[in-house]
Amino acid sequence: MSGAKQKLMIHSSQRSKNRLEAFPSGWFVLCFSEELERGAILKRQFMGQDIVAFRTASGQAVVSDAFCPHMGAHFAHGGRVEGETIRCPFHGFCFDAQGSCTKTGYGTKPPPNARLRIWETEEFNGILLVWHHANGRRSDWKVPALEDHGWSKLSYYSWKIRANPYDTAENAVDIGHFATVHGYQDVSSMNDLNLDGPLLTATYGMSRDGGAFRQKNRIKTKFKITKWGLGYSAVEVYVEEFGLLSRHFVFGTAINQDEIDMKIAVSIFKIAHPSAIHPLLALIPHQLLRKIVQRASLKAYKTDVSQDFEIWTNKTKIENPALAKGDGPIPAFRRWTKQFDPRFEVEKKKGPCLSPSAPGIDSSQVAISQGSLTPPEQQISASEDYQRPAPNTSATSTRR
Ligand code: FES
Ligand SMILES: [Fe+2]
Question: Which superfamily does CATH assign the domain made up of 32-132 to?
């Protein structure tokens, strides 16, 4: 067995302690746009259900249940895209992007109850997002597209890991582990956590040795995190010494109660001082420079993210953590996550939970300018208590 596999081994008793009890609501990335070519059908598990994504002849991405409502064949096993429809391999029924049966394989009238469940989707910035709501409601907020003019095309990587999506999302505000797990130093405290409906923003700074470019000096970096729910996280990373502005994305999507499709992606905006990285880099064309830096950034990012896997895979749940000074704003983060947890729907209806309305943001709000990040609007103390009520429901799937 390889070292990587050994590291992710867990005992079944441990696994059950950290199982996902209810699939969260929100927008989750199913795939990168370029993975779904015109005419292609992708087979995926999403929130414990079998679904497919297909791209029609006109280029529309459609996500539907995997099983044909006629007699249950799986579209990804012999099905094909025909024009703006998906054709079932079993009896040739075709379904359009709204889920209507447009024809049977026999030229007879489509039965009115042959309706294919279509999932709500959004596609922008090279990603395809799918809305999931445990109680089947349509989306009441959206993830805004980022301005991507001048940014490089995404390069990306994905893993299937055993983890709970609440843990993986919490990682971004868990300041305490940055030094112990990732080796970051001089982490400035995250005292400007902003929570606004499904939007979370936070900034912090840190320094580290080496990093993507194996520098001898310690590299100072500023981060601005923008999370929309549990499934979408964009981090703008600015390294002043190199004049390097990049975006690092993390997309965690629950496959089932034990596993997550963990995707990462990197995009580069500019490298103003390439000679500070290496003298030779100043001599090469900017496009090539960006490619080299992007490749190095993704490699380093893969290393960083995978350092958490063994912890996530083997940890248990601690409902009321024994927090200390130096921990991140864990209680505030956990309260924020309740709006995505169907077990708290009752509480949400009564009013104490966060509003689901989402303000729009533009690129000026998420861009990091040299030396100045978004000022704090709401300060959260790590000493706030976190109380969790008893779970009361289990999840079902959303329907458009
Ligand atoms: S099962 Fe799909 S057409 Fe019959
Ligand atoms: Fe981490």
Answer: Rieske [2Fe-2S] iron-sulphur domain (2.102.10.10)
